């Protein structure tokens, strides 16, 4: 079967989704030059996401790792050393350290803060010149998540906008390998500045918590910071463990893991929530009968969030997983040991095998509400409760504050330039409706 070449601009996503459905549960693809398998069938994807024979650690389980990361524009997605790219015991160790910052207690405690931040942003919208189109992706969908993440991590105001710019570039899959490396260098510079600030002035935030885990761990765990970086892994420098024998302490973070964990939290906790809010608003404004059901009390804002996550997964395709051994797939195809696997969440969320032939339809009353937008199995997104909180709060308060909200005339909901990020470049609206 000829490999399906995924469009890095995201413009052909609907056509690619149809092709993925037609080709079966898994299909060979070209991902910016990397040969992989895309899995769009939700049943198979669920099984692979929880299968111990599938790893996210390319350093251990991808034979082409060293050769690829030095020239591949998406190297950061497989080369960073954090829980996103860890497997087995290493993944459990790193996830446990980060998980304390996303406990139910901490998320519940943020409810009032999320409401206050949303209210301030809506006040800013109300103060804008009446009658002029307003880009809600820019003025709400972007600003709420970055402010929430800033408070969670303790980001100073001076770094917030810079972090946003660098994260956007991480998700931009039209950039060259050289541009990606330059952006990553900038990103790490900001992370180093944040870490240095929090070491001098610790506070009640996630960055300080992770620094404490790093600095109070075994001194052998790379205490001098001499561990491999994303840029050096491809050259065989360091193994990301912080020790010569490749092991790590039971709870300590290496300096590399500290930086890359912060990189992960900023990136995953920001861009995906932006797309959730963006896509949900766009769906409600283009399906007014669905909005009427919410306003009539037939369904809740949580139902809107779940349907938006299902129909338009904020991450369309997520690189990469790797077969630890040969795995036979339905239909007789075989994932060979070391083969890369791409989780195609956007397609899985619309698959007719689970959602029927109307899987692309936005329906807040849909009886089957389960989806894979936050992943599945050991790597299920720790930030899912926070993203759901932000999404439901933003939608409820927005439509209460602006009951006549409507898309601007001739609005073009063009996709962001990414095969990973699934949202719109702009979301132009009229706050007081079309007159």
Read across the widest sheet, the strand sequence of neighbours is 1-2-3-9-6-4
* Separation, N- and C-terminal Cα atoms: 53 Å
| Integer average pLDDT | 90
Q: Can you tell me the overall shape?
A: globular
Short structural description:
The protein has 435 residues and is α+β, with helices and mostly antiparallel strands. It has helices spanning 13-23, 42-49, 58-61, 65-69, 76-79, 89-99, 104-109, 111-126, 136-141, 143-153, 157-171, 177-200, 206-215, 230-233, 255-286, 288-295, 301-311, 345-348, 352-355, 384-401, and strands at residues 4-5, 26-31, 34-39, 54-55, 134-135, 318-323, 327-328, 334-335, 340-343, 406-407, 428-430.
Describe this structure in words.
Strands 1-2-3-9-6-4 form a six-stranded mixed beta sheet. The chain has a three-stranded antiparallel beta sheet with strand order 5-11-10. The protein contains 20 helices and eleven strands. It has helices at 13-23, 42-49, 58-61, 65-69, 76-79, 89-99, 104-109, 111-126, 136-141, 143-153, 157-171, 177-200, 206-215, 230-233, 255-286, 288-295, 301-311, 345-348, 352-355, 384-401; strands at 4-5, 26-31, 34-39, 54-55, 134-135, 318-323, 327-328, 334-335, 340-343, 406-407, 428-430. Strand 1 (4-5), helix 1 and strand 2 form a beta-alpha-beta unit. Helix 8 (111-126) packs parallel to helix 20 and helix 10 runs antiparallel to helix 15.
